[in-house]
């Protein structure tokens, strides 16, 4: 492979975007960026500062405080992927809770938050050789990406995957709560005014409701190989 490209992976929550993105980055020795982790970290910060809860959201105070939010990734060799750091503190576990999941779409609606993170994401990918997943990577962050994928699956399948992931981690959750969260995030992500979740015209749709990881990876790698030769 002589040519480095940008791979943009968008799609609904819990469609396995991060899993496939990590696999691709490892295979290609590319940089992997989980943009969802960045929005989750800002959400965690807002929760810590009491700017947001299930009953209130003081978006103006969060916007004013954005210059004080520093986000970075640090590669963990034992885990095999980069972990999210918020103002120098590893928050990888904290940002994956259902409490953060319930609020992240509201934070991601804020234009000032999106502008800050998009700038950082574009800087990370300026030299290509990157796999980035999120909601607006192929439409806003890297509209000229050589390969754009849009991941989707039924809400039931996605909720089941998310439920198993949290249970395996030791969290106490119930399936109906997870399903409701998945459906609500879909609604907010798809209807927000700033950079709504839509499939780019030149993206390839992957419905992985009944597709295993091995099949997904092999199909996507064939697409990558066609673009880097």
Structure write-up:
The chain has 229 residues and is an alpha/beta fold. The protein is 48% helix and 17% strand. It has 9 helices and 8 strands. The protein has a 5-stranded parallel beta sheet. The protein has a 3-stranded antiparallel beta sheet with strand order 3-4-5, covered by helices on one side. Helix 2 (35-48) crosses helix 4 (98-108), helix 2 crosses helix 5 (111-124) and helix 4 (98-108) runs parallel beside helix 8 (175-191). The mean pLDDT is 93.
Record the SSE blueprint.
Layout: E1 6-11, H1 17-28, E2 31-34, H2 35-48, H3 59-65, E3 71-76, E4 81-86, E5 89-90, H4 98-108, H5 111-124, E6 130-134, H6 137-141, E7 147-152, H7 155-169, H8 175-191, E8 204-207, H9 213-228
Parallel strand pairs: 1-6, 1-7, 2-6, 7-8
Antiparallel strand pairs: 3-4, 4-5
Helix pairs in contact: 2-4, 2-5, 4-8, 7-8
């Amino acid at each position: 492979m002589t040519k480095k490209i940008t791979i943009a992976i968008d799609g609904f929550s819990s469609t396995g975007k991060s899993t496939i993105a990590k696999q691709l980055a490892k295979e290609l020795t590319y940089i992997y960026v989980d943009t969802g982790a960045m929005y989750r970290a800002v959400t965690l910060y807002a929760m810590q500062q009491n700017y947001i809860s299930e009953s209130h959201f003081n978006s103006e105070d969060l916007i004013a405080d954005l210059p004080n939010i520093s986000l970075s990734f640090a590669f963990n060799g034992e885990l095999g992927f980069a972990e999210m750091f918020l103002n120098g503190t590893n928050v990888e576990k904290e940002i994956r809770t259902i409490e953060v999941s319930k609020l992240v779409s509201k934070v991601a609606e804020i234009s000032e938050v999106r502008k800050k993170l998009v700038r950082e994401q574009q800087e990370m990918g300026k030299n290509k050789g990157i796999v980035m997943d999120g909601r607006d990577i192929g439409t806003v962050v890297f509209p000229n990406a050589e390969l754009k994928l849009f991941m989707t699956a039924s809400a039931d399948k996605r909720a089941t995957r998310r439920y198993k992931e949290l249970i395996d981690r030791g969290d106490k959750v119930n399936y109906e709560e997870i399903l409701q969260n998945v459906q609500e995030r879909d609604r907010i992500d798809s209807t927000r005014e700033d950079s709504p979740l839509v499939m780019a015209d030149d993206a390839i749709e992957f419905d992985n409701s009944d597709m295993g990881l091995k099949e997904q990876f092999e199909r996507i790698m064939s697409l990558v190989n066609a673009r880097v030769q």
